[in-house]
Each structure stands twice: as C-alpha cells, then as structure tokens.
C-alpha cells in the first residue's frame, strides 16, 4: 500500500469510529419513535463504501492539488483540508467506477500536458504556475468531471470520505442537526404573522376569529 | 407487507399499476367500494427508518429513483436525430418505491385554477400546438381537491390569495411556520403591490390522522420523510387501502405488458416478480397509474396484432404532448443568516402572474415558490456570473447560509413532437424496450420563464438582497413533472381517455396520473393528479356497480 493510501485507510478507520461514536443526545423530543427515526436518518447505517486505492500516491497528490485550486484553502478550509481526494479515490473505486476509465485517461493527458511545461510534478509547483496551467484546461471534460467530484466530496456526508470534520458544511454554514424549531433564521424571528389581504376570505375569517 | 395476498391466478376485480400519488388513492377508493385490488409497484417497500439524510445517495446515486443503468432512457431534442443515453442519468426522473414520487416530492400542493381547464376557449388557438380545453371544469374537480386536503392531509390558509379559486372547505391544518425565505419574499413582493401567501403543503403542520407534525429537518425535496409528516401515499392511502382487507400491495413487481383477449378486453398484467420470474396477474379491469412516462410506455409495449401501434392508441396520441412545467430560479443573498436548510422547502408562494397576458407578446403563466437549496444543490447549480472554481467560487459557496431561491414554475405548451415513445434499440435490464424522450421547449415557454425570472429579480431586490443571481434558463433536457402523454378528452380521435379516465379503445382499461393532463397548469401537478384520482375512482366504482366495465 502506498503512503497516500495508508493515510487514506487510517482516515477511514478514524471516520468509521467517529461515526459510530456520534451521539444523538441533542435530540430532546418527547416522542421517542420520532427521535429515533430522526437520529437514524441523520446518521444512516454508518456503512462505508469498500476501501479503495485506485489512485497511486503521485496521482492522488496531483488530484489533491487540482481540487485545492477548485476550492482553495486559506483562512477557511478548502478541498485539501476537507480531504476531498479521499472521497474521489473511494468514489472512483465504488459507486462512480464507471467514470474511472475516462478519469484515468483525462488525468494521464493532464499530466502529459504538464510534463511538457515542467520537470517537477504539478503538485510540487507553485500556485501561480498551477493556476496558469489550469486556466488552459478548465474547459476539458477531465477538469469539469474533477470539478464535479470535488464539489460532491466537499459537501457529501463525511461517511463517504471527504468533508473531513464537516469542513465543507462549515464553510457553507450547514448544521446537520435533524430537528429544528422556529425561528429558523434572522428574518423570521420577529415576523408578526401573515396579514390577510383586504377583501379575501382569509381576512374575513381572521376578523370573525378576532 | 400487505396482510391480504392474492394468487396471480386468482382473478381480482382491479389491478392498479403504480402505488404513487394516484395509485394509492385508486387502491383505497376501489377497495373501500368493496373490490379486490392488487397494486403492482416496481420498487421496494421501505420503512421510515430506511430513509436517510444523505444528499449524495438521494440526489446523485439514485437512492430511490429510477436507475439509469437498470432502466435507461434516451433523449433527443429533434425527431430527426438519433436519441442518446446520458451517462449516469435519465431525462425523466421519478421515485421507484411504494408510494412512488409522492415519497420524494417537495409537497407543494396548489390547486389548478378554473382558467386552466378551458384556457383554449379563453385565449384561442396557438398555432402549431395542441393547446386544448380539458373535458372537465374546475367546479367538477373542486370536491375532490377538498377530499385530497382532508383525506391525504394538506396544510394551508384558505382564501389567503386574492385570486384563490373557490373552495368548499378550509384546510384541515394551519400553514407551516414561515421561514426567512418566506418573510423576505413576502416583504419584497408586498412592496411591489403583489400578493404572496402561505404555501399550501402536503406536510403536517400539526399531528394529523395518526401521523406527527413536521420536525423541520429540512430534508423533503428528493427525500422520504422519516417521521411520516409528509403526506406521501405510502403513509396515507396505502395503509388505508390495506386496512380494508381487500387490497394487496405487491412491491418489486414490474408490469411490462397488459394482457388482452380476442374480444379486445384487458385480462390482467404480465409482470416480473422480485426474483425476475415472469408472472401474470388476472384481473377484471386494469387501472394504470404508473406516471406520465411509464404509463404511455406500458401501453406502447403492449402492442399486438389487434393493437399494432400500442394499446389504446387509435388516436396515435399515446406518449405525445409531453409537458414539464418550464421554470427558472433566481438566487438572492442577504446580509444575515437565513438558515434555509431548515424545515420544509417552501413557506410562501406567489400567483399574481398566473394568467397569460397577451400584452407580453407570448403565452404563459406561472407561480413562484420562495424556497431553499440543500448544500449539494447549492454547490452544483452555480448561477450565471459566478466563477466556476477558485477563490470566487469558494466565496459563492460561503453564501449558502445567507441565501434563498425564488423558483418559478410555469406553463409548457403541448406539442405533438414532444413525446415519450420506445427507443428502437435500447432495452432495460429485463429486456423490455426503453423510453425514448423527444423534447424541445416551445419558444413561449422559454420566454415566459425568463420574464417570470425578471419579476423575481425585482422581488428579491425589493426585499433587500445584497446580490441577486439568475440561474440560466436553458432548454429542457428532462423533467420531473411528467404530464400530458395520454390526454383526456371527449373525442376519441384527439384524446386517449375519456372524461372518466376510461381509454376510448378498451372498455376495462383506465389511466390516471400526470398523463391525463390536457394542459400543463402552472406547476406543482400532484395535487391535481390526486384530485383526478379521487374523481376517477368514484366513477370507476360506479361503473363497476352498474356492470358497465
């Protein structure tokens, strides 16, 4: 097993145990059956797709570098921090296996094109050079497919290998809790209630009820 | 599993093909009328505990929808072209589980309005289209809309919209609590003199008929409801049909052909059971509620020497006049958090632009829902003017929580060239000819969608949006509202079923689902599909009592 794959594998084990240990203690509902259903829906059965390893360490490094330009890092986590490459590796080995041949061919062409520019790997190059090359390939089917995989891995449930520590969800501001009560957001806090339009049956009903 | 079980060799009164919005109602009503009923459903029967909040599974991996590998379809935008498969996705999407697409729908439950049923008479012909009146009027359907609201369960505020159609009863449940998207949309629209109102939704706002109220988890659109607060057929009509002791719901049973005898009567259905063994269920009558794609496909796949162009297709219109409800989305970003991922998708709707206005220069009408996206939908559907990758794209991702969507639905004109038929080459995993879709939007559909989008830009700007983005309105390459493909009408030359949903050609064969529509309405068709099903079931039971089937 390559170093990258060993890292992915240990990551998977960590995720599996993290999912198993996730508590549903926040669920303060009166109806236990509703609480149980909601808790299950939020966490699923915890089953992980099979261990992958379709990308070599060098390929994984290049893919990771591309992903990290699609959703760059910085003050807020990007694709690398979210371990999107682990999602992609696993996806191509399992539920997106049909995409693997085209992905491999696209990656081969991407790396061949890069090799004409530079002796060092794409992953090892500086940001300016990476961006300059990516702008020349951003319309290719390979880049568009990788972009899509990056987005999916960034926001899919962490059980698929990406979205590490919910980094993707945190960037978006998505909180995965399953039971909410109003107010839901800033603007519905002080909503005074729906005022029916004059002359409508709803206005007449409101008046009769008042 | 149903407590009642019939042998396929046992001749039941009715086989209902499909267990969704229409099939569930048909089963309950016919079983309650005293008939033996077998409901055939291609998909599995899932328990509430089997639904998960997993966007990847439900939106990308076809968790409960028709699979593009086992049940592939092809698409083309021009009848002169060869239709092609799209890798990994089908043009027409529907849920394939007990409960059908009522399991994963958003649950917008608008009624159609009186004008929808006779708009051709109101506006005149539109050249080159199959624009036509329905053979029934709103007034005939009104009692059944009310029945849907009370028997299935709809939350809403009656008479809130100044142009609400007449109704005989209020809603049984109050509207669901408003979300920030609803407040902002209402604020902007009222500033412009428009009339947004609380959305009618087939989701319990309070406990109703033994099911709990919504827990506001946010996973409605595309997901099954794990607490049964959504009024899906599988939690509402199906159990009540089974409670009669006369109805069996047979899951994982794929009907591929309707059996016929020499007298031109349906004798039952050929199907593959859960083990892929071919079987035949005998029945005195067949009711097909398989949706606007699978119903015409089944009729076309039931062609025989006596019916060479497909069953019940003497008009040649089976599969034709496919309509989707064209629409478009506008995204607004605001200063503070909306947290739109919480609760039901829609809490306010707008119907001020329902009527077509000749002054616009094109036909079209519609409605808008103030709604939310979930994270994956947000990431994948980047609007015009936003960088598709890099730092600018990341900034867009981070706006998710301060954003909302004004999603408009509208009219699609009936065109004979827009159709579902059988692909000449492609077969599904069972060896049955696959669906071929031919579809191109009428120019007026696109023009109205863009016009309505501009109105929603104005509303979101009036609401104080910091940024407003339009999602490009492009040519339709598929749909989820599957309408018009076996249209109803009085004239057997220009329609497939009569006003009671009986096929003109086969006396004991009935069709009821989105395929029955004559015009598209303005979106959110399930409410009308269910009202049609209650009405059709009442008449079918009446025919049965009178020995007229």
Notes on the protein architecture:
The complex is a heterodimer of chains A (210) and B (549). Chain A is built from 9 helices and no strands. Chain A has helices spanning 3-21, 32-43, 57-70, 84-93, 100-115, 127-137, 141-155, 167-172, 201-209. The model of chain A is unreliable at 1-30 and 43-51 (pLDDT under 50). With 549 residues, chain B is an alpha/beta fold. Chain B contains 12 helices and 16 strands. Chain B has helices spanning 21-32, 55-60, 114-117, 119-123, 138-153, 180-191, 237-242, 294-301, 375-380, 391-397, 443-462, 526-545; strands spanning 12-17, 37-40, 73-76, 197-198, 247-250, 254-260, 266-272, 278-288, 327-333, 348-350, 366-371, 403-410, 419-427, 433-438, 467-470, 509-511. In chain B, the strands form 3 sheets. In chain B, strands 1, 2, 5, 6, 7, 8 and 16 form a 7-stranded mixed β-sheet that branches. In chain B, strand 13 (419-427) and strand 14 (433-438) form a beta hairpin. Chains A and B meet through helix 2, helix 7, helix 8 and helix 9 of A and helix 2, helix 6, strand 4, helix 9 and helix 10 of B.
List the helices and strands and how they pair.
The complex is a heterodimer of chains A (210) and B (549).
Chain A: H1 3-21, H2 32-43, H3 57-70, H4 84-93, H5 100-115, H6 127-137, H7 141-155, H8 167-172, H9 201-209
Chain B: E1 12-17, H1 21-32, E2 37-40, H2 55-60, E3 73-76, H3 114-117, H4 119-123, H5 138-153, H6 180-191, E4 197-198, H7 237-242, E5 247-250, E6 254-260, E7 266-272, E8 278-288, H8 294-301, E9 327-333, E10 348-350, E11 366-371, H9 375-380, H10 391-397, E12 403-410, E13 419-427, E14 433-438, H11 443-462, E15 467-470, E16 509-511, H12 526-545
Parallel strand pairs in B: 1-2, 1-8, 2-5, 3-14, 8-16
Antiparallel strand pairs in B: 4-10, 6-7, 7-8, 9-12, 9-15, 10-11, 11-12, 13-14
Helix pairs in contact in B: 1-12, 5-12, 6-11
């Amino acid at each position: 097993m390559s170093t990258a794959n060993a890292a992915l594998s240990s990551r998977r084990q960590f995720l599996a145990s993290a999912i198993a240990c996730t508590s549903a203690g926040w669920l303060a509902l009166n109806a236990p059956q509703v609480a149980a259903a909601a808790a299950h829906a939020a966490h699923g059965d915890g089953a992980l797709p099979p261990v992958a390893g379709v990308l070599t360490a060098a390929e994984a490094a290049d893919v990771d570098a591309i992903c990290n330009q699609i959703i760059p890092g910085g003050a807020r986590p990007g694709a690398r921090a979210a371990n999107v490459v682990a999602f992609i590796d696993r996806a191509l080995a399992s539920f997106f296996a049909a995409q693997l041949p085209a992905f491999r061919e696209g990656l081969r062409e991407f790396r061949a094109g890069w090799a004409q520019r530079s002796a060092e790997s794409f992953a090892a190059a500086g940001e300016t050079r990476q961006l300059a090359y990516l702008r020349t390939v951003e319309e290719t089917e390979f880049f568009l497919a990788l972009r899509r995989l990056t987005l999916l891995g960034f926001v899919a449930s962490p059980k698929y290998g990406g979205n590490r520590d919910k980094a993707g969800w945190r960037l978006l501001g998505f909180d995965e809790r399953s039971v909410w009560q109003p107010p839901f957001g800033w603007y519905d806090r002080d909503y005074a209630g729906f005022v029916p339009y004059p002359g409508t049956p709803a206005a007449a009903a409101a008046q009769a009820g008042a | 599993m149903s407590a009642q079980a019939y042998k396929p060799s046992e001749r039941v009164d009715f086989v209902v093909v499909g267990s969704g919005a229409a099939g569930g109602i048909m089963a309950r009503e016919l079983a309650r009328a005293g008939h033996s009923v077998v409901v055939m459903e291609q998909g599995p029967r899932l328990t509430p505990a089997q639904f998960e909040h997993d966007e990847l599974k439900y939106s990308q991996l076809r968790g409960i929808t028709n699979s593009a590998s086992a049940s592939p379809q092809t698409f083309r935008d021009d009848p002169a072209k060869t239709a092609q498969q799209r890798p990994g996705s089908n043009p027409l999407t529907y849920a394939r589980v007990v409960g059908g697409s009522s399991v994963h729908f958003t649950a917008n439950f608008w009624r159609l309005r009186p004008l929808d049923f006779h708009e051709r008479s109101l506006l005149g012909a539109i050249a080159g289209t199959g624009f036509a009146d329905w053979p029934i009027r709103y007034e005939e359907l009104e009692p059944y809309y009310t029945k849907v609201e009370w028997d299935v369960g709809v939350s809403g505020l009656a008479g809130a919209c100044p142009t609400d159609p007449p109704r005989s009863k209020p809603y049984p449940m109050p509207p669901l609590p408003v979300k920030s998207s609803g407040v902002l949309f209402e604020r902007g629209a009222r500033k412009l003199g428009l009339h947004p109102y609380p959305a009618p939704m087939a989701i319990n706002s309070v406990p109703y008929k033994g099911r709990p109220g919504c827990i506001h988890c946010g996973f409605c659109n595309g997901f099954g409801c794990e607490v049964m607060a959504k009024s899906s057929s599988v939690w509402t009509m199906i159990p009540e049909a089974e409670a009669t002791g006369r109805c069996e719901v047979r899951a994982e049973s794929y009907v591929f052909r309707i059996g016929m005898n020499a007298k031109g009567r349906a004798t039952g259905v050929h199907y593959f059971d859960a083990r892929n063994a071919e079987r035949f269920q005998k029945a005195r009558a067949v009711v097909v509620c398989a949706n606007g794609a699978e119903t015409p496909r089944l009729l076309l796949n039931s062609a025989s020497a006596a019916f060479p162009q497909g069953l019940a297709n003497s008009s040649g219109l089976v599969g034709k006049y496919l309509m989707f409800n064209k629409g478009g989305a506008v995204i607004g970003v605001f200063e503070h958090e909306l947290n739109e991922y919480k609760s039901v998708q829609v809490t306010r709707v707008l119907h001020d632009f329902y009527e077509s206005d000749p002054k616009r220069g094109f036909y079209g009408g519609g409605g808008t829902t103030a709604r939310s996206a979930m994270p994956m939908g947000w990431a994948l559907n980047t609007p015009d003017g936003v960088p598709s990758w890099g730092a600018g794209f990341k900034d867009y991702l981070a706006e998710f929580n301060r954003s909302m969507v004004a999603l408009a639905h509208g009219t699609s004109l009936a065109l004979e060239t827009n159709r579902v038929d059988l692909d000449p080459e492609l077969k599904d995993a069972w060896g049955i000819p696959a669906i071929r879709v031919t579809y191109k939007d009428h120019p007026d559909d696109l023009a109205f969608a863009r016009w309505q989008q501009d109105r929603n830009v104005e509303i979101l700007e009036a609401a104080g949006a910091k940024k407003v983005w339009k999602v490009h309105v492009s040519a339709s390459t598929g749909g989820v509202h599957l309408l018009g493909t076996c249209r109803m009408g009085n004239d057997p030359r220009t329609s497939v079923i009569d006003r009671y949903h009986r096929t003109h050609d086969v006396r004991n064969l009935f069709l009821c689902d989105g395929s029955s529509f004559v015009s598209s309405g303005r979106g959110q068709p399930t409410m009308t599909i269910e009202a049609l099903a209650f009405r059709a079931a009442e008449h079918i039971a009446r025919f049965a009592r009178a020995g007229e089937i």
